[in-house]
Amino acid sequence: MNQKIPLSQKLYLLGIHPEKGGLLSSTYNVINIVLPGALIFELYQNSNIGIENKKVTVKSLKTEDPLHSFILEKLKQKSNPVKISAFIGQLQRSQKFIRNEVQQGLVDKRIIKMEPRQLLFIHWKKSKIINKQLLHNLVSEVENIVFKGTEDSGELMLLSMLKPAGLLKRLFPEREKRKRATERIKKMMAENQVSKAVSDAIEVMQAVAAATVITAATAGAHR
Q1: pTM for this prediction
Q2: d(CA 46, CA 63)
Q3: Beta carbons of 56 and 82 less than 8 angstroms apart
Q4: Which residues contact 133 (CB under 8 A, 6 or more apart)?
Q5: How many angstroms separate the CA atoms of 201 and 148, rounded?
Q6: H-state helical runs in 47-149
Q7: At the N or C end, where does the chain have fewer CB atoms within 10 A?
Q8: What is the pLDDT of residues 110-145, one digit of tens each?
Q9: In the prediction, which pLDDT does 223 show?
Q10: What's the half-sphere exposure (Cβ side, CA atoms, 13 Å) at 212?
Q11: What is the H or E stretch that residue 2 is in?
Q12: Residue partners of 96: CB distance under 8 A and separation at least 6
């Protein structure tokens, strides 16, 4: 891909319905957990934070990304290292701001547009993909990584987030292929020697996202 797209934006883009626009229901239910988790991965990759024993600490405030700065400022206010899961939960209070910033990043790259919508007195904006070739390339890239394998920590993090983000069925609609993809991802996670910090982050992120999916499903069953 020619454009450098961070993990958070890739996950949001893959979660948009390619024809109708708007987030797929499987992604919509967990997006407010997935985006903060992805941003923590980005900060780790950029050496802005350290992760040890599933706790996060600030290493550097140097960044040109406004969203990264926002999260680092939140983290800087903590007097002690904070658990990843707890910090992700706290960032949900800023979910609208985070989601809007991720959307704006994709708008600035001319990958999506935000279309105004209205129902009676309710106003909102719906994400719509305008660069479908880039989306097609991204889907092909993910499939290639899954079935050809990778040792790149950034690509492994992307794969680790597909299930929590509710994207496996969207990327692999055929059941048998989806099953093989899931097995391949599990195998790569087990065999690749990623750092302990990244492994801890992946483990916590998957656990938090899975808990959110279960909570959302339970809430829906009681409506």
Answers
A1: 0.87
A2: 9
A3: yes
A4: none
A5: 24
A6: 66-76, 84-91, 95-108, 132-148
A7: C
A8: 999 999 888 888 888 899 999 999 999 999 999 999
A9: 46
A10: 25
A11: none
A12: none
